[in-house]
Amino acid sequence: MSVTRASESPAVHSGPAATAPAGGRIAGAAAMAGSGLSNQTGAAIGSLAFPALGPVGVVAVRQYVAALVLFAVGRPRLRSYTWAQWRPMLLLAVVFGTMNLSLYSAIDRIGLGLAVTLEFLGPLAVALTAVRRRVDACCALIAAAGVVVLMRPQPSTDYLGMALGLLAAVCWASYILLNRTVGSRVPGAQGSAVAAGVSALMFLPVGLVVVLRNPPGLAAVGFAVTAGVLSSAVPYLADMCTLRRVPAQAFGLFMSVNPVLAALVGWIGLGQGLGWTEWASIGAIVAANSLSMLTRR
Predict the structure, then answer these.
(1) Which among 101, 42, 47, 52 has a CA at the least distance from the CA of 228?
(2) 46-74: pLDDT as tens digits
(3) Which of 36, 128, 231, 286 is most buried by its number of CB atoms within 10 A?
(4) Is residue 55 a contact partner of residue 106, using CB atoms and an 8 Å limit?
(5) Angle 92-98-103 (CA atoms, 0-180°, nearest 5)?
(6) Pick from 242, 257, 8, 227: which is nearest to 116 by CA?
(7) 218-228 vs 22-47: helix axis angle to the nearest 10?
(8) Cβ atoms of residues 123 and 228 within 8 Å
(9) How many alpha carbons fall within 13 Å on the CB side of residue 192?
(10) Which of 32-36, 146-150, 277-281 shows the highest mean pLDDT?
(11) 249: burial class by Cβ within 10 Å (0-12, 13-18, 19+)?
């Protein structure tokens, strides 16, 4: 949400979408496809600004864009909140920033496909632990096997990059759980807007330092802003449209394709090729989520 978004994981969504008419479901499926492709393309474009801004600078710009979009949509009433409302929103802001920073740092070290696959373990873990079925235990074992293969020791293994990807997964899982709390205490999208705004304020000094130490060119800034739009604004608005038209299970099933989309975008757009073992590991993790969603009532 990556894979880093302002909406919850699909595993925790439910509602009247399952009864939406066929035309609405088709529109929702198109929105899901556009959201996933936009998200991963944005991450790939953002990585082009790494030489000038670094992952920290790119994340800072992305946080600014996310804050602008969410504030425009959520329109939070800052003076009306109690401490019980502020507390989870502030925690969400910290998790939001850490999630994006760890993901983009992982992308810089191990590539888009592997980084997004490791990050996806966060919502997958939340989905699998939300229910108690034998099939979910099997799915967890399948996903674990994929992770073991991905992180097997090799001469070229970047353990720090892998650790950053897993940190992004922990943050995404925390983000989902905190979003539940925020959603129950703050109406509409106001909680996500406040969290994004606070996170952007936290990254403001970082952005100033990056600009003052090494002023970036217009191309680098353009890449970072584009990443913010494609990976924050477009997915958020697309998900709002999708979740009104598509059942939660279908949303979760499609979301599992994001690691594959990331690997393809990284391969085609950035030349980050993967070996057959990496593809098999990604396939195992995607299969685990797909099996869990398909067998859920």
Answers:
(1) 42
(2) 999 999 898 999 999 989 998 998 888 88
(3) 231
(4) no
(5) 125
(6) 257
(7) 150
(8) no
(9) 25
(10) 277-281
(11) buried
Looking only at Cα atoms, what is the longest distance across the chain?
55
Q: Which residues contact 29 (CB under 8 A, 6 or more apart)?
A: 246, 250, 254
**Residue in 166, 135, 136 with CA at minimum distance from that of residue 148:** 166
Q: Measure the CA angle with vertex 140, ends 134 and 145; round to 5°.
A: 130
Amino acid at position 42, single letter: G
CB distance 108 to 210 below 8 Å: no
pLDDT at 7: 38
The one-letter amino acid at 204: L
What is the value of pTM for the model shown?
0.80
Whole-number Å distance between alpha carbons of 294 and 145? 20
Helix, strand or coil, per DSSP, at residue 147: helix
203 token code pair: 């990254």
Tokens of 81: 């909140």
Give the separation between CA 242 and CA 252, rounded to whole angstroms.
11
User: How far is it, in rounded angstroms, from Cα 84 to Cα 132?
Assistant: 31
Q: What is the DSSP string of 138-180?
A: HHHHHHHHHHHHHT---TT--HHHHHHHHHHHHHHHHHHHHHH
